[in-house]
Each structure stands twice: as C-alpha cells, then as structure tokens.
C-alpha cells in the first residue's frame, strides 16, 4: 500500500509539471509578442537544466532556425533577438 502512495505522488507531480508546461506553452503562443516568446522560452529552458538534452543554466543547444520553428517565428526574428 505504501508503494502505491509513493507511485501516486510521483505520478501527480509529473502530471502537475506537464500541466504547468502546457499552460506556459499556451500563454506563450496566444499572449506574447515575438520578443516575449523568445525571452520566455530561453528563461524556461535554462531554469530547468537537462544535461541529456545539452541544456545548462547558461546555454541551450538550439540553432536560430530551431528556435524559430519551436516558437512559430521565422529564423530572422529569432536572429534579431
């Protein structure tokens, strides 16, 4: 019974993080201008470093084109920032 509770806690934390991530994505897509989209994305990515993806607190492994595609912007807009 105790193992099931621990598993439930882990699953709920994961679900909560997923929901928060999706809310942030929707906010970024619908409410932010191009500068806010890029800044929000960079701040979010570097706030949660992930060595497996090459993300640290000071760098991300994405090209300007990949940023543009991820944020629904063209590469030139991503480059301007």
From TrEMBL:
UniProt lineage: Bacteria, Bacillati, Bacillota, Clostridia, Lachnospirales
Classification via Gene3D superfamilies: Jelly Rolls
Official protein name in the record: Uncharacterized protein
